[in-house]
Amino acid sequence: MASITLSTKGRITIPKKIRDCLELRPGTQLDFSINCDGKIVIRRVKPRTEESNSRFEAVRGKADVMWRTKELMTLLRSEG
Fold this sequence. Notes:
By secondary structure, this protein is of the alpha+beta class. The protein is built from 3 helices and 2 strands, in the order αββαα.
């Protein structure tokens, strides 16, 4: 574990070993969160790809109807 000192401007330097492990480069976006144990978790934000801009990504997780499997299969299999 590395010990890091916070600068007077609130900045830190991420140790090289961690930068290399996460493949961090200048301009890389990071996501900071705190887990249940109060530990800080740093994740590299993956750049958006063409796939993530697809019409499917735009609506993923937006359904407001909770379908039961049997009802959904009946709907999808209907000839109508």
